Amino acid sequence: MSLILALADTRDPNSLASRLRRRRFELFKTLLARVPRPVNILDVGGTEAFWRDSDIVRDPSISVTLLNLAFAREASPQFRQVEGDARSLGFPDKSFDVVYSNSVIEHVGGAADQLRMATEVQRVGQRYFVQTPNYYFPIEPHFLVPGFQFLPVSARARLLNSFDLGWTKRELDLESARVVVDSVKLLRRSDLARFFPNSKIYDERYLGLTKSFIAYGGF
Question: For FRET with 56, which of 33, 47, 147, 186 sits at 20 to 30 Å CA-CA?
Fold first, then answer.
């Protein structure tokens, strides 16, 4: 487990997760280069730290709005922060040049909620770039247990009721554990294609296996 944690640690710039994230962002930057300036980006579920680590925000012609369920503690005038729900973004149609989202759509609920988010992203954005982990990748990316996503919810809850799993601390109450494990709904490629029917889908691969998908369109 310690090896898996090390590979998945985004705080370490040399970890597998960090390397894949940088590669993913290079694809985004290539697409963003095609967009006329100035560019206003909506990041659904994003953080200031993520954007500060990139060189994109050094460009004064690019502005970033961060939307989350609650404001982050850190706040910089370089970013606009708004509270909101990914399933009901509350902005006018096509009000952003680009909507960006990284590993969020699997957290908003079941298929109906995921479709609502996807519809909203396509409604408010002239372009979009949405990443999500692959349901079929052998190691579940949140709890970092091989095959965890294939177990019944009851079995997953019992495991979290008994152990710390990945970055998630043990839940002492079984019902609370059930709520936590059931809050992650990983997507298949076919799900993403259905939610974003006019998109291109990029397969992010590791050792020949698809670790995550990126649906993008409008670029």
Answer: 186
